[in-house]
Amino acid sequence: MIGVFDSGVGGLSILKYITKELPDYKYVYLADNARNPYGNHSQETVVKYTRQAVNYLFDRGVKLIIVACYSASSLALRTIQDEMLVKKNVKDRKILGVLRPVAEEAAKLTKNKRVGVIATRATTGSKAFETEIAKLDKGIRVFVKSCPLLVPLIEEQWGDKPETRKIAKAYLREMKSFNVDNLILGCTHYPLIQKTISQIMGKKVNVPNIGEIVAKSLKDYLGRHPEIEKSLSKGGAGNTALSNVEFLNTDKIPEFCQLGSKFLGHPITNIKKIDLSEY
Amino acid sequence: MIGVFDSGVGGLSILKYITKELPDYKYVYLADNARNPYGNHSQETVVKYTRQAVNYLFDRGVKLIIVACYSASSLALRTIQDEMLVKKNVKDRKILGVLRPVAEEAAKLTKNKRVGVIATRATTGSKAFETEIAKLDKGIRVFVKSCPLLVPLIEEQWGDKPETRKIAKAYLREMKSFNVDNLILGCTHYPLIQKTISQIMGKKVNVPNIGEIVAKSLKDYLGRHPEIEKSLSKGGAGNTALSNVEFLNTDKIPEFCQLGSKFLGHPITNIKKIDLSEY
What we know:
The structure is a homodimer.
Chain A: E1 2-6, H1 12-21, E2 27-31, H2 43-59, E3 64-67, H3 70-75, H4 77-86, E4 94-97, H5 99-109, E5 114-119, H6 121-126, H7 128-136, E6 141-146, H8 150-155, H9 162-177, E7 182-186, H10 194-201, H11 210-224, H12 226-231, E8 245-249, H13 253-264, E9 271-273
Parallel strand pairs in A: 1-2, 1-3, 2-8, 3-4, 5-6, 5-7, 8-9
Helix pairs in contact in A: 1-11, 1-13, 5-7, 9-10
């Protein structure tokens, strides 16, 4: 199975595109909504929570985990990969983040070498995007801005309301003056107000589709790593992409399903609550 | 010692008045900011987290705990009191919430017997205010409204901005039509925008000071329970109220101190990070 992990519903905006691009595999989506949002927690806390989620998924037999949460990808991925795979010389399991493929795409797309990133405070504070993009091209200038209110506004389904547009405008005011040609949505909630953000930034600024980038990058990865690809189980004939997904969360199933279906664009059933704090 | 527990900084708006009213005692303030906010979590999760906090404080020798968090008071207090005190026949330790004193005051203050409550989703969903007020006077009609965006707006220090006023106005639109004469701020964050809320509700609606009510109620309680009062340690001579407070939290000390000082109206020092998940 492929495991997709997020602190809450946000990663469903990534899962949507992964299951579209790679409909044959079996998936398990894990949301730690008893302790979310992660975006304002410390590195130590995010590492601890991510470690528990990864332990759980490996215990369940998952071979490949996508950490579909920028806060966890920025603050915890490297540490977790080191301690759980590199140091133990584990080769048949993999943990991938969402940051690198998005950074690669941005480096490819930018013409004026000025890239903007909006994200949670955890992600901007980690400087993960600056580091990742600098590895690809030191000449690219990266401008980051944390937009902590956008997650609650989107979760409360105020995304379409004028107050959200005004708050987004206030967050993006300085960004507009930086003359970036690409703006990365560095939080899995933001694609739900992609249109509003695009309108505020204006026609000259490209806002790439994060879900498509991550899905394509995963497809490429599986093509380059047949040893991993072969170990993944596939759904039976006649299964649609989303009927191959098992959902797990850590709190409040009905609310998760109601909000999550908006991120996924599809109803969520087949869900079970688990406790991560023991892992 | 008196323990004051909250999921985050909110309870400091209560602690401020308690230490003013009762400056001689020693206090420990515990904030579970690695897992906050509690306001959108389920009852099961809030009970679990509150149990761990109460266990920790009792282990530390605290004799009297104020659960200065409406979400925890509404969803967890009764269960925790039952399992940790009543069932074990413990008489020398006490756990008090903030809901009952506030409900009592509202029942006393209302003349037209129409009381409004704004709170988090956890608190409104629990129907705790309706239950508590009905115990005092079945003739009082209680109108509740959850305002989930106010906590993040206040925590992000957008409380004074026009967007917050607009969102508060939208939340209170229906409440204004209910002709309540008292509006309870059923979340410890809301006192930070008390002025805005009062202005929106208009001059005919009284918005009681929650911190004062809880502090006076605690003073009364100690007067009525000398056996508890005697067991509480006091600060040395010359100590000011806030120099008698030890602060504990579960994540990100600098951010907690910076935001918390606004709730407390005083700088926060003497703080230590602890781990509640083992309790």
